[in-house]
Amino acid sequence: MKDRYLRFADYNSWANLRLYDAAAAVADGDYRADRGAFFKSLHGTLNHLLVGDRIWMRRFTGEGEAPDRLDAILFEDFAELRKARVVEDRRIESYIHGLDERALSGTFTYATITNPAKVEQRLCEALDHFFNHQTHHRGQAHCLLTAIAGGAPSFDLIILQRERGWASIVRP
User: Fold this and answer.
1) How many domains is the chain built from?
2) Max Cα distance, the chain (Å)
3) Crossing angle (nearest 10°) for helices 42-61 and 123-149
4) Which of 91, 125, 149, 156 sits at a 20 to 30 Å CA gap from 99?
5) Is the Cα torsion angle 66, 139, 2, 128 positive or negative in sign?
6) Positive/negative CA dihedral, 35, 40, 45, 46
7) Is 122:107 a contact under the CB 8 Å cutoff?
8) What is the CATH number of the domain that holds 110?
9) CB neighbours of 21 closer than 8 A, spacing ≥ 6?
């Protein structure tokens, strides 16, 4: 089971790098414009991705900053947000590397933010949500980039799988 999460952590870093490379090419006005997305703009969406990761990593590890609002803007400056994203991705990878099968199948308890409650959940199931949440909001960012720039890089997992040799094309 751990191998699955190591790959998801690798995918997460890879996809975020592609996302931030594409976002860096967008004019600031377009980057910040309210385009009707759930977190309004590309800027709001990228901040939310970091917010969500920090909240979950605090739940998983008991360490680090955890915003108390899902729409918090952690960084106004794109370059600073990008640096923080890289640091968080490394933190996620390190955390996953430190887990063992026993921890993954065990439970942990955390408090929710939006509708305060205490939740006990299997760690592996929370990690499934954690990585799926990132993919969901990167999809929103992809849509925003497509609307702004006319296209965006693919974040399809299969591309990384082929790059890393986790999947190969067999030709007849």
Assistant:
1) 1
2) 56
3) 170
4) 156
5) positive
6) positive
7) yes
8) 1.20.120.450
9) 153
Contact 133, 52 (CB under 8 A): yes
Per residue in 58-82, pLDDT (tens digit) is: 999 999 989 999 999 999 999 999 9
The residues, ordered by sequence, that sit 6+ positions from 116 with a Cβ below 8 Å of its Cβ are none
CA 118/CA 106 separation, integer angstroms:
17
Structural domain includes residue 147: yes
The residue assigned the tokens 């931030």 is 20
Residue closest to 31 by CA, chosen among 78, 75, 73, 83 = 78
DSSP 8-state class, residue 66: -
Angle, CA of 82, 14 and 36, to the nearest 5°: 60
pLDDT-based confidence at residue 169 (cuts at 50, 70, 90): confident
> Would residue 107 count as lying in a domain?
yes
Which tokens sit at 70?
A: 């899902």
Q: With contact defined as beta carbons under 8 Å apart, do 74 and 50 qualify?
A: yes
pLDDT tens per residue across span 42-52? 999 999 999 99
| End-to-end CA separation in angstroms for the chain | 32
